[in-house]
Amino acid sequence: MPQRYNLVGTHCKNCNEYYFPPRTICPTCRREARMEDHKFGGEGKVVTYTTIYNATDDFKRQTPYNLAIIELAEGPRLTGQVICSPSEIEIGMRVKPVFRILGRDGDRGIIYYGTKFVPA
């Protein structure tokens, strides 16, 4: 999944809006849209966040951890984990992307990777 691994979304060349996850049709321009793939730089800021202290078994060893809504420099917002102490995270904090393990899946423990964020 390119969007998970590389922060790939879409850009409408007609209205200059950016979307993550990618869209096939621009909600603003509709049929007039001229969509193209766009790789986001990943830098952004924390819009809001919460700290998880009690997690499912899959994430129990990571607790406490921070989940935030990140507004990317290009405009779209996405949910992501911010790797820092709960006392360090704050609204407006600048963040940058890092490639990390997201979890393990299935009986065989297949590891899957993706984007998390750290303070910039």
Give unreliable regions as ranges: none
How big is the Rg? 16 Å
Taking the sheet with the most strands, its summary is: 5 strands, antiparallel
| Relative helix content | under 10%
Order of helices and strands: HEEEEEEEE
Q: Provide a count of the helices.
A: 1
Strand order of the largest sheet: 6-5-4-7-8
Classify the secondary structure makeup into a structural class. mainly beta
Q: How widely separated are the two ends?
A: 25 Å
Give me the count of strands: 8
Mass-distribution shape: globular
Beta-strand content bin: over 45%
Mean pLDDT: 90
Describe the 3D structure:
This protein has 120 residues and is mainly β. It is 4% helix and 48% strand. It folds into 2 domains: 2-39, no CATH class; 44-119. The chain has a 5-stranded antiparallel β-sheet. Strands 2-1-3 form a 3-stranded antiparallel β-sheet. β1 and β2 form a beta hairpin. The mean pLDDT is 90.
